[in-house]
Design brief:
Blueprint (H helix, E strand, L loop, with lengths): L6 E8 L3 H8 L5 H4 L6 E5 L2 E4 L6 E7 L8 E8 L6 E11 L8 E9 L6 H22 L2
Antiparallel strand pairs: 1-7, 2-3, 3-4, 4-5, 5-6, 6-7
Protein name: Polyketide cyclase
InterPro entries: START-like_dom_sf
């Protein structure tokens, strides 16, 4: 769970099942495809990545699959400019969408970003704008 009091949430439904989405989002090598302004991501240890963005230089990914196929899977992203000062600031909530007549199962993705106390209004607006773009990137990629 995120601990910040102020959050920004965006969501979308994609035409992949929950397991496919979970496997894509929790894989750090895929971050450069959908995380805005992060063209280079390198794994530095299992689940920990170094990115080419100044404000998000380090990313640690923790993925928590649900034991219930109808339950929600969670992916947490601890991020920060310094490796020893990362904050759990981004979360993906993945929920299955029941298949309807002649349709494949789908997945609802909710991305939640938290505002830390040291963020200026300008920085927070930048986070929200990037967040909006990132959910659209995920939809474009996962609907292929």
């Amino acid at each position: 769970m995120l601990t910040q009091e102020v959050v920004h949430s965006v969501s979308v439904t994609v035409s992949k099942n929950k397991d496919q989405v979970f496997n894509y989002i929790r894989e750090g090598k895929n971050l450069s495809e959908w995380l805005v302004g992060t063209p280079d991501v390198t794994e530095i240890s299992p689940g920990e990545y170094e990115a080419s963005r100044v404000e998000i230089r380090y990313i640690f990914i923790e993925s928590l699959p649900s034991s219930d196929p109808e339950g929600q899977d969670l992916v947490y992203f601890d991020v920060g400019a310094e490796r020893d000062k990362m904050n759990r600031r981004i979360m993906a909530i993945l929920s299955p969408v029941a298949a309807k007549e002649n349709k494949m199962p789908q997945c609802h993705i909710e991305l939640v970003a938290g505002r830390t106390s040291d963020m200026s209004d300008v920085r927070w607006q930048d986070v929200c704008d990037r967040h909006e773009a990132e959910i659209h990137n995920l939809k474009l990629i996962l609907d292929r």
